[in-house]
Each structure stands twice: as structure tokens, then as C-alpha cells.
Design goal:
alpha/beta, eight-stranded mixed β-sheet, five-stranded parallel β-sheet
């Protein structure tokens, strides 16, 4: 179960100016496993403190002397702790706010020590922290479910992975390779990227076991809701969890979630799910030039669910034979998959941001699935589950924003070409000449490299 984030952790270790690292991500995305694998391979020894399983250890962090804390830990774990040779891993740190504030003193007084902290509900604690936050004394890193390329690695599809990473628009993909990659992609659609689900499939090849596991993970999310205030608030969280899981990438209209509750109540539940990393906001942006975030509208958004496999589980889609399952839901799955892959293109240290474009006008609605900023350019992205599909919304966006390049992901072979379209956008109409980069969904991970290669 190799994870791409290991390379970032190696770079962090080798940086002489490293700071304590806060690893952020939803429950069961593999934070603990990744850190411990990294520690085994790159340190002489390591200590893991799980502050939920061993609450008595929280007392140690009332001491503001990090050296005294290390002395205590050395005795408790019967091992030497040597800065530069030992990794200290504090798991479930959100359960001890004092430990979070202590990271400042570890950085100031023991800068040579490598310290990583993680927690599945960490962002809740950071958001509500009443103690001083160690601003400037810590680094942040985001972790997500496994990507499609990590999935290929786990399945032992090393040659397919190399093929993807070395793909060039100058090459032609054979029918056999293309079909094999689409088959693997459809399996990923249903297995998803949760590490335990992928591990279970690799070990058993039984899809029914994965259904049970997805159900268990979703149940664990609901148990977490017990930590979120009143029973009524927990019910709102369950309602929003169900809606966002069953309707990924749908524009949020509160009346569609629950007609009986006020929008403010549902909005707060959405915010808490975002802090839990169970959903990611995809915000509307009217940008025509960088940065996309400058023109975002926080009140208009759709939500990406944590994992495509979990979303399918919530929709009661049976994993009997993914290769035969072709239905209307595949369009939704393709967009959910694309969103997950685009998140992986963000630097792990950066706050995750996804954007789309929407115009709602009488007889002139238009929606572009994602807006992608690469270096100093913006590209509208359309996602299609099949080989065909209208690009009218992309035409409107390119025409209105005076841009000339769009990107489409679908299940067809890669291509690039220049096209002409007659566009009507509201009260305006005109001619559009544009370049379209069309790629199969399994190449989303290579998008920045392919853009650079084409020079567009």
C-alpha cells in the first residue's frame, strides 16, 4: 500500500528548516499507516502516541518544556529519543488542545526533532481552539483517499502506471491498453480509494467484502457525530451526510436537503462535514483570469464527497460486476472521480480548493464542471461518462471570458484539435474558435504535464 504522500514526508525530513507537521484528513484515509511506514523506513526508531487510546498521556503536555516531555516518554516507552534519528508521532492530537499549542515549544526549543501530529477531527479543534495557536511554528499537509494511480500500484499494475506517467499526446493508445485502463477505472469507481477497501480487494478479490467495509466506515462517521453537540444537531449531520453522499457534485439547495429545517441549520451541518473532510466544497467562480479564487462566490457551491466508493455504497449500488454496470449514475460517478483526482493535483501543503462555473438565467443556463488553474492560465473542464456529449456550457464560458482552450475528460481516446462553434450567451452571440484537449478519465493525474507538453 504505497502512498504518494511518503515522498513529501521524505522531503520534509530532509529539510533542515522543518517544523512540526500537522497531517490533516478524514477518518480512515490512511494517515496513521502512512506515517508509521515512513517512520519504519527512514528513522532509527519512532514513538506513536495515540491520545484517544491512552488519555493519561495528555498530562505530559501540561509541561511547557519539550525536553522534559521527551524524558518522560523515553521512560514510558523504554527507548532513547534522539532528535534527528527518532520520529515522534502524536496521533488523535485533536483530543488534547494543549498538545497542539505545545508544538510551538517543540519547534523553538528542539528544532532538530522530527514531529508529526494527526487527527481525523483535527480541523474541528483547530477551528475552535481557545488556546494560542502555534502560528508560523507548524507546517500543514492534507491527505486524501488513494488516487487512481495509487490504486494501480496496489493492484500490482506497475506497467499500466508507467504507461500513464509516460503518456504523450504524440503517442497513440492501443485499443487493448485503452480498454484495460477503462476496466480498471470502473473497478476503482466502485472500490473507491479508502485504503482498507483497496487492501481488502487486493487480498480477497471479493467485492461483497468491500460493501461491508464501506458500510462500516460510514457507520464510524455517524458515531463521530456524537461529539458534535445536541441530538438535533447530530440528526442534521446525518441528513446532510446522506444527501451529499447520494448526490455528489450537485449544486446545494437547502430545500432539496430538508424542507423542514432552516437553511442556517443545514449550512452549519455542511460546514461541520467540511471540517471533518467528509465533503469538499466546489465553489462557483466567475473568473476569467487568475487567480480563480479571487472571483469565487461562497454562497453558490456544490459538494464533492470524500470517496466515490462510499458514495456508491450510500446509493445502494451493488458491486456484483462493475464492468457490466452502465447506467445514468455513471455521469455523476465520473464527475465525483474527476473531483477526487483534481484534489490530488493540489500541493499537499496547500488548502484544498475546487471551483466550477455556473450561470442561471432564464433560457440561458450553463454550467462548467470544474475550473482548473495551471500556472497563469484558467481552463474550463467538462466531464463526460461516455465518448460523446454536448460542450455548450464550455462554449459559453470560453466565449464570455475570451479564452481559447478547453479540456474534456471522457472514455474516448486522447485527441487535440481546433474547433469552431456558433455561440449564444444571453443577449450576445458570436463565433468561437477554440482548442479542445480531450483525454480519457484515467489521465487526469497527468493533466498539468500534458498542458505543458501541448504549450496551450
Amino acid at each position: 500500500m504505497e502512498r504518494d504522500i511518503i515522498q513529501l514526508l521524505i522531503e520534509w525530513k530532509n529539510n533542515k528548516n522543518h517544523k512540526p507537521l500537522l497531517l490533516r484528513g478524514a477518518r480512515q484515509v490512511g494517515k496513521t499507516y502512512a506515517v508509521e511506514q515512513f517512520a519504519k523506513n527512514h528513522f532509527a526508531n519512532y514513538i506513536t502516541l495515540n491520545l484517544e487510546e491512552n488519555p493519561e498521556l495528555k498530562e505530559l503536555f501540561k509541561n511547557r518544556d519539550p525536553r522534559a516531555i521527551l524524558d518522560e516518554l523515553s521512560v514510558i516507552y523504554n527507548t532513547d529519543i534522539e532528535p534527528g534519528k527518532t520520529l515522534l508521532f502524536i496521533d488523535e492530537i485533536q483530543s488534547c488542545p494543549e498538545a497542539i499549542t505545545q508544538l510551538r515549544y517543540f519547534h523553538e526549543k528542539l528544532p532538530q526533532l522530527h514531529l508529526i501530529a494527526a487527527g481525523s477531527l483535527l480541523d474541528h479543534t483547530l477551528n475552535e481552539l481557545k488556546l494560542p495557536m502555534p502560528v508560523g511554528r507548524v507546517e500543514f499537509c492534507h491527505m486524501y483517499p488513494m488516487s487512481f494511480t495509487e490504486f494501480l500500484t496496489a493492484l500490482g499494475e506497475v506497467k499500466m502506471l508507467d504507461y500513464i506517467k509516460n503518456f504523450s499526446m504524440q503517442k497513440q493508445i492501443s485499443e487493448a491498453v485503452h480498454k484495460r485502463l477503462l476496466d480498471l477505472l470502473r473497478y476503482y469507481f466502485f472500490i473507491g480509494g479508502m485504503p482498507e477497501a483497496i487492501h481488502t480487494y487486493v487480498e480477497t478479490k471479493k467485492l461483497t467484502e468491500i460493501e461491508k467495509l464501506h458500510s462500516n466506515i460510514l457507520t464510524s462517521f455517524k458515531y463521530d457525530f456524537a461529539k458534535y453537540g445536541t441530538r438535533s444537531q447530530q440528526q442534521h449531520l446525518n441528513t446532510v451526510l446522506k444527501y451529499t453522499g447520494q448526490n455528489p457534485c450537485a449544486k446545494i439547495k437547502y430545500v432539496n436537503i430538508d424542507r423542514e429545517n432552516r437553511s442556517a441549520v443545514l449550512k452549519e451541518a455542511i460546514r461541520k462535514l467540511e471540517l471533518s473532510k467528509i465533503i469538499t466544497m466546489v465553489r462557483h467562480s466567475n473568473a476569467s483570469q487568475i487567480p480563480v479564487s479571487r472571483h469565487r462566490n461562497d454562497e453558490v457551491y456544490k459538494t464533492l464527497f470524500l470517496d466515490i466508493g462510499l458514495s456508491n455504497s450510500m446509493n445502494r449500488i451493488q458491486l456484483t460486476d462493475p464492468l457490466k454496470l452502465l447506467n445514468i449514475h455513471e455521469g455523476i460517478m465520473a464527475e465525483q472521480f474527476a473531483g477526487q483526482e483534481l484534489l490530488h493535483l493540489h500541493p499537499a501543503y496547500a488548502e484544498p480548493e475546487l471551483f466550477y462555473w455556473l450561470r442561471e438565467e432564464k433560457n440561458a443556463d450553463a454550467e462548467v464542471d470544474f475550473l482548473f488553474q495551471n500556472n497563469n492560465s484558467i481552463y474550463p473542464i467538462e466531464i463526460k461518462s461516455g465518448k460523446t456529449g454536448s460542450l455548450k456550457s464550455m462554449h459559453v464560458y470560453l466565449f464570455e471570458k475570451k479564452l481559447t482552450t478547453g479540456i474534456r475528460f471522457n472514455t474516448d481516446y486522447p485527441s487535440i484539435g481546433t474547433f469552431h462553434a456558433r455561440v449564444r450567451a444571453g443577449n450576445k452571440s458570436g463565433e468561437l474558435n477554440f482548442t479542445l484537449i480531450s483525454l480519457p478519465l484515467y489521465l487526469i493525474s497527468q493533466l498539468p504535464r500534458i498542458i505543458e507538453e501541448t504549450g496551450l
